[in-house]
Amino acid sequence: MRKTTLLLASIILALVLACMAAVLSTAPGLAQTTTVTLVGAGDIASCHYTQDSATAKLLGNIPGTVFTLGDNAYPDGTAGQFRNCYKPTWGHYKKRTKPTAGNHDYYTSGARAYFDYFGWRAGRPSQGYYSYKRGRWHIVALNSNCDYVSCTRDSAQGRWLRHDLADHSARCTLAYFHHPLYASGTGSDTPEVKPLWRILYNRSADVILSGHAHRYERFRPITPNGEPDSANGIRQFIVGTGGAPGEGQIGPDDPNVQRKKLGTPGVLKLNLGAGYYHWKFVHIAGKTFTDSGTNECH
Fold first, then answer.
1. Would the pTM count as exceeding 0.85?
2. At what angle do helices 156-167 and 194-202 cross, to 10 degrees?
3. Cβ count near 56 (within 10 Å)
4. pLDDT in tens, 99-119
5. What phi-psi label fits residue 210: left (phi over 0), alpha (psi between -120 and 50 degrees) or beta?
6. Per the CB 3.0–4.6 Å rule, which of 224, 250, 274, 283 could disulfide with 287?
């Protein structure tokens, strides 16, 4: 009888320990934190080329949240171009997309077709900026079309950004918008977004993603004034590689660029973990360029 009792007690204890292990393995912060994935690019779809279809295929093989860095539908961001050009390619992943608008999207008045197509995912049509959380990261999508939605510190967007960052005290922060503050050559850098950069820098943001220039560039961590800052700087990626034909470059490379490639469509895949991020540029079939690395958050 005693042996039977001891056997039953052992079985019950084993079941309790198994249940506790299952709970601990799923409880946030009690087990190894799972990374989350962001993947995307800017300068994407047109009915006059096929590279957008090739980059869309990459999205189909990479799970996670899809970001767009503006200029979603060429050449004018019309309803027809979103319906006939974007929808058959990147539109397959609309349900997991968090977009931003580019200047070509605003070629249609007020970027109306862009906001109609993406709906609530794009934020309010009068704003086009919003934030969300993925894993341990705070993600901010901004509107860098400063002629339409002001980018100054005391603008509605600037005030919203300051309050949003103050309300979300995540260790790791990533922001994305269409226009880069700095870019190699001439014609793509956008000083109008510097106030947004300053707000993000002052709140210890880690990464900024932009498009606009139809190429890939990775910068060292820098200040809003373009000074190297390995301790507190923001790393900027330009990923204008979603499909639009590459452009030539007039002028020298930016001194803070660590890696650059023209003429290779692809997407940037980011694995975001607790206190770190890993990046990898994924090229389309037939190309060979890639870039990858890992950094800790501030």
1. yes
2. 20
3. 23
4. 999 999 999 999 999 999 999
5. beta
6. 283
How many whole angstroms separate alpha carbon 105 and alpha carbon 84?
15
Backbone conformation region of residue 286, classed left if phi is above 0, alpha if psi is from -120 to 50, else beta: left
Tell me the pLDDT tens digit for each residue of 191-208: 999 999 999 999 999 999
Percentage of residues in the chain with pLDDT exceeding 90?
Answer: 86
Dihedral angle at the C-alpha atoms of 285, 289, 233, 42, nearest 10 degrees? -30
Cα–Cα dist 65/139, whole Å: 11
- Kindly tell me the sign of the dihedral angle through the C-alpha atoms of 222, 223, 227, 230: negative
Structure tokens at 117: 């197509």
Pairing of strands 266-273, 36-41: antiparallel
Mean pLDDT of 236-254: 94
